[in-house]
């Protein structure tokens, strides 16, 4: 995640840097993805498996091929709730509205102790994530992601995940838990 | 006014095989030691196109003739299918050589598949057909 940041490092709070280092030193064995659990949306846009966006005027549904996840972005005009008023979700609670040709998605209510990359950069329930999504050309969706989690990072930071349209393909069923035989053999730091 | 649902399928522009290595997104580092490469020659016992990752299971004969089973973890079935792989391309009974990385759990005859070569010289990477050896 830090590769596109100035200096190549996210602006971690000290505890977050330590946690990230510990997770990575442990071979990322506790990454939710390795346990067939959902990817946080910040990482999901970078995942090698595709995702399908289905939209109508009231909501956008993202079906992630990876681990069969379903993320909802409500575009019916409802306000973003306070994080303390919603059950924490793996994908967070998202509302979207249009700013010209850009869909601005605001999200809150993430589960605590999230991972947002392979190395284990954290995200907490304090986070407010903003995605500015635009389509600069037919085949590209540009997703500019800003993470504002003062508990975890000393300042907000932004990365961009470009998506390629897969015009002649479909999602392929991916039931991660059907044969995850590696799970008992994940080895951490020795 | 008729409301129509639209759908598009998108994928990250970091395509399979470029950018982040495939092992990075399934904690392969926790299961396999990339500092411990292995090469195993044997006969296909089974090919499992199952999620989250496919498996190539080999019967491997040692010098004394004793047969041991080795299992190599390959790509996601969806990734392999998109890359042109189909079930039954590599059949039970086929003689193959697999290069990979040993499982960290040394009690297991397991590895991560890096490259599979058939008896007639066809080379497959962890996501299926490719031209030449895995980079």
Topology, element by element:
The complex is a heterodimer of chains A (190) and B (135).
Chain A: H1 14-25, H2 41-44, E1 51-56, E2 59-64, E3 69-74, E4 93-99, E5 102-108, E6 114-115, E7 122-123, E8 128-137, E9 140-148, E10 157-165
Chain B: E1 6-12, H1 28-31, E2 32-48, E3 55-61, E4 67-73, H2 77-82, E5 95-103, E6 110-118, E7 123-125, E8 128-129
Parallel strand pairs in B: 4-6
Antiparallel strand pairs in B: 2-3, 2-5, 3-4, 5-6, 6-7, 7-8
- Rg of chain B over CA atoms, rounded to whole Å, is 17 Å
Q: Looking across the biggest beta sheet of chain A, what order are the strands in? A: 1-2-3-4-5-8-9-10
List low-pLDDT spans of chain A: none
CATH third-level topology of chain B: OB fold (Dihydrolipoamide Acetyltransferase, E2P)
What is the CATH H-level superfamily of chain B? Nucleic acid-binding proteins
Could you characterize what this model shows?
- Chain A is mainly beta and 190 residues long.
- Chain A has one domain (2-77, 86-167): Beta Barrel (Lipocalin).
- Chain A contains two helices and ten strands.
- The two termini of chain A are 26 Å apart.
- Chain B has a single domain (22-129), classed as OB fold (Dihydrolipoamide Acetyltransferase, E2P), CATH 2.40.50.
- A five-stranded mixed beta barrel of chain B has the order 2-3-4-6-5.
- The model of chain B is unreliable at 14-25 (pLDDT under 50).
- At the A-B interface, β1 and β10 of A face β1, α1 and α2 of B.
């Amino acid at each position: 995640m830090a590769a596109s940041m100035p200096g190549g490092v996210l602006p971690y709070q000290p505890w977050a840097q330590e946690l990230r280092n510990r997770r990575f030193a442990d071979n990322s064995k506790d990454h939710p993805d390795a346990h067939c659990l959902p990817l946080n949306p910040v990482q999901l846009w970078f995942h090698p498996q595709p995702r399908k966006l289905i939209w109508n005027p009231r909501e956008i549904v993202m079906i992630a091929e990876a681990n069969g996840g379903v993320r909802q972005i409500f575009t019916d005009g409802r306000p973003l709730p306070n994080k303390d008023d919603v059950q924490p979700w793996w994908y967070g609670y998202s509302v979207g509205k249009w700013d010209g040709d850009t869909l601005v998605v605001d999200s809150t209510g993430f589960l605590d102790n999230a991972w947002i990359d392979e190395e284990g950069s954290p995200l907490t329930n304090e986070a407010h994530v903003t995605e500015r999504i635009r389509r600069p050309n037919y085949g590209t969706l540009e997703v500019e992601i800003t993470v504002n989690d003062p508990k975890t990072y000393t300042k907000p930071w932004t990365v961009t995940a470009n998506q390629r349209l897969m015009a002649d393909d479909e999602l392929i069923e991916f039931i991660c838990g059907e044969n995850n035989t590696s799970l008992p053999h994940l080895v951490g730091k020795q | 006014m008729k409301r129509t649902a639209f759908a598009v399928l998108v994928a990250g522009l970091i395509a399979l095989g470029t950018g982040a290595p495939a092992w990075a997104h399934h904690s392969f580092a926790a299961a396999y030691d990339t500092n411990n490469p292995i090469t195993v020659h044997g006969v296909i016992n089974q090919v499992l196109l199952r999620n989250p990752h496919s498996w190539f299971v080999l019967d491997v004969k040692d010098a004394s003739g004793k047969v041991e089973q080795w299992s190599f973890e390959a790509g996601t079935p969806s990734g392999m299918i998109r890359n042109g792989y189909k079930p039954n391309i590599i059949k039970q009974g086929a003689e193959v050589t697999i290069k990979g990385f040993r499982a960290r759990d040394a009690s297991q005859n397991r590895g991560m598949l890096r490259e599979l070569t058939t008896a007639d010289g066809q080379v497959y990477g962890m996501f299926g057909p490719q031209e030449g050896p895995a980079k």
